[in-house]
Structures are given as structure tokens and as C-alpha cells.
Amino acid sequence: MADINAIAKSFVDFYYSTFDRNRAELAPLYKEFSMMSFEGQQFRGADIVEKLQSLPFQRVQHQVVTVDAQPSNPQAGPLLVTVTGRLLVDDEQNPQHFSQTFQLVPEGTSYFVFNDIFRLNYGF
Amino acid sequence: MADINAIAKSFVDFYYSTFDRNRAELAPLYKEFSMMSFEGQQFRGADIVEKLQSLPFQRVQHQVVTVDAQPSNPQAGPLLVTVTGRLLVDDEQNPQHFSQTFQLVPEGTSYFVFNDIFRLNYGF
User: Fold this and answer.
1) Buried residues in B50-61 as b, exposed as e (16+ CB within 10 A)
2) Of A36, A61, B35, B110, which one is least surrounded by beta carbons within 10 A?
3) Cβ of A37 and B86 within 8 Å?
4) Partners of residue B103 in chain A, C-beta under 8 Å
5) How far apart are CA B122 and CA B124, in angstroms?
6) DSSP characters for A5-67?
7) Tens digits of per-residue pLDDT, B34-89?
8) Domains of chain B (ranges plus CATH)?
């Protein structure tokens, strides 16, 4: 599964570097029927990036610890990508830990995000 | 999405209570084309439950902290279910934190596991 892992890694690098630089630029990744669960709240379509832009921090830095990928359909095409990592916001000294799951769906030579589920991991 | 959340919760309750009681009984949940990534290692079909049974602990207790669910296909049917939680093995006093992602595919009146990605969350 070298190919999928390479695609997953390349998506994850792109996603978090864009997130950390300018969240608004994530908009093309989501379609109007895309779904995001963010800390248990549900968002769809354009509301997804609006929510990401409204998050109450000025600076954020994601550090990816693990990336896993599997085909999510026996006919191949879509990919399930899971990430665990840490993030640091503004002047915080202690990173928060997160898990995020994406389903990526191919479109032309690229992928869009159909599913996105994000959780901070508390209680550590 | 009340329905999917209820299905996800009921699956998660069943999965971890069965895991903690007798891992061998998880076998019917996985088909020969099911996939598991366990701490970065890949397994398929019958190898999945064999791997779970070979894990080097006698007793394990999972405590689920969050469960999220989304339809993973626009035509409905399959579900993406993500879990964060803690687990305690044997006589350990300190729980380990984990994230797990499943894709559940309907079959008759039930679901089987097509994708399963498990990670311990280290470095806390």
C-alpha cells in the first residue's frame, strides 16, 4: 500500500501546513455535501471552513505524530486517512493532543474531503 | 443524525465489551476482505482477530471517552465511526490512550467492519 500511504502523507502535509498558514485556503478541499464533526458539533459544506476560521486563536501549529491510510471502498478510489498529533495555539506552552479522520474522494487528479472528524484528546 | 449516532454507540458498546471479555468473539465482525491497521501494521481477514488474540495481555478494559459517526457514502449505508478512549491492561495502574476508526458496512440487519485503524496515543 505504498501508493496510498504516499497520497495520505502528501494530503496531511498539505492540509496542516495550509491550516497553520491560512485556514481560508482549505475551502477548495470541501464540497457542499462534505461533513465535519468538530468536537462533537456537525458542519456541512461552506460552514466547515467558516467554523475553522472562527476558531479563537491567532496562531496554530500542528505536529503530526502518526498517519494511517486504507482504501475505504473495495472498488478503490476513496481513502480513509487517520492522524494523531499535537497542536500548539498562540502562546501556549503545552501542546494539546488530537485525532482526526478524513475520507478523501478522488476528483480528477486530486481529492476532496467527504468526511472529517476532529477530536482533542483530553484527560491525559 | 440521531440514528447513526445510536448505531455507532451500540456498535462501540458491543465491540469493546466483547473485546474485553473474549477477543475471539469479534471474528464474525470481520470479512475476508476487511482491513485492520494496528499500530501501523496491516492485517486482513482472519489475520485480524488472530492478531487481536495474540496481544500480550490477559485482561484489558476499554473506557470509551468520545464516539463520532458520519455516513461514509452519499448513497447512505456505510458509516464512519471514530472513538477516543483509554485502556487498562492486566495490573497496570496508568491507562493508555487510544484512537480507533471503523468503517461499518451494512449486511442484512447488521454491520460488518470493512476498515479498522487503531493507534495508541503516546507522548502525553
Assistant:
1) eebeeeeeeebe
2) B110
3) no
4) 72, 80
5) 6
6) HHHHHHHHHHHHHHHHH-GGGGGGGEEEEEEEEETTEEEETHHHHHHHHHSS-S-EEEEEEEE
7) 999 999 999 999 999 999 999 999 999 999 999 999 999 988 799 999 999 999 99
8) 2-119 (3.10.450.50)
